[in-house]
Amino acid sequence: MTRYSNVKLLAFVGLPGSGMSTAANYLRTKHFPSVYFGGVILQAMNEAGLEHTAENERTFREQFRQNKGTTGVVDVIIPQIYDLIEAGQHSIVLDGLYSWDEYKALKSEFPQSLTVVALTAPRITRHRRLAIRPSRPLTNAEASQRDWSEIEQLQKGGPIAIADYFLENTGSVEELYENVEQLLDTIKFRL
């Protein structure tokens, strides 16, 4: 790991609708390289010829982890991170850390490089956002089911609880961007 001592990984975690992808997308617009945990599942669904519905996604996500193990997604992500490092990137955004086992795998692989940021928002706020998002909107019942699934099946509470920083995301998108900028200054996360 000493070879990669200058690498910084900024991992966003949170329950659905908390703003993880919004924060990560903002950093992408600032040209930070990133890897997308959910993209592993969506790509596998595409390869299986499955439609992207809330039910299909939930079922497939759970089956994927049953078949590939609890680190199945991060086992795909870690080589992507190394590819970016080998390409000369040293500040990399990890969009959508999901499970405790994924956290442990990343912490083991990159012990000095990983910073975890939990985005938080009240359930009613998160569910409202999920209902109006343009891609894969969720009903309130679907959003509740997704919350429970991520907490119980994916053990998402662990990475949220152990996060290095917390960003409350209850205001406007612009306020979230300001909070992300302050965080970047605090942790000296730069291109």
Topology:
Elements: E1 8-13, H1 20-29, E2 34-36, H2 37-48, H3 54-68, H4 72-86, E3 91-95, H5 100-109, E4 114-120, H6 123-132, H7 140-152, H8 157-161, E5 165-168, H9 173-187
Parallel strand pairs: 1-3, 1-4, 2-3, 4-5
What this model shows, in words?
There is one protein chain. The chain has 191 residues and is α/β, with parallel strands linked by helices. It has a single domain, classed as P-loop containing nucleotide triphosphate hydrolases (Rossmann fold, 3-Layer(aba) Sandwich). It has nine helices and five strands.
Which key terms come to mind for this protein?
globular, single chain, alpha/beta, 55% helix, 9 helices, Rossmann fold, five-stranded parallel sheet, 5 strands, 191 residues
CATH class: Alpha Beta
Helix content: 40-55%
Assembly type of the chains comes to single chain
Secondary structure tally: strands: 5
Order of helices and strands: EHEHHHEHEHHHEH
Q: What fraction strand?
A: 5-15%
Task: Describe the structure concisely for a colleague.
The protein has 191 residues and is of the alpha/beta class.
